Amino acid sequence: MNSIVTENLAVAYEDILVVNDLDMQLPQGKITAIIGPNGCGKSTVLKAIGRILKPKKGLVYLNGDDIRRLSSKEIARQMAILPQSPQAPAGLTVGELVAYGRFPHQKGFGKLKPEDKKIIQWPWR
Length: 125
Fold this sequence. Notes:
With 125 residues, the chain is α+β, with helices and mostly antiparallel strands.
């Protein structure tokens, strides 16, 4: 099963079309790189996938579900996007940064559970 799929995705800034008719499948559990020259739309695609930018047309699916129909919390449980900038605060470890990604899985202001700590340690365990 593909974890992220786009169908006929078109994304624009105002009237400037940056991405048009993109069909893409990102396999679940794999590391995938999106490469291309500056200004070709790599970050724009990621913003559309993460619901930061609304596509002009097309669909984005996350684990088979249309992301337009998912709550922000549900998306945050399944996916995280870490932009290149701004930079993480000085002194923040990778583990601490990954731990922030566990917040959508907590109830209220709960503490990290052993399962959360196990997930944070992947793939170093």
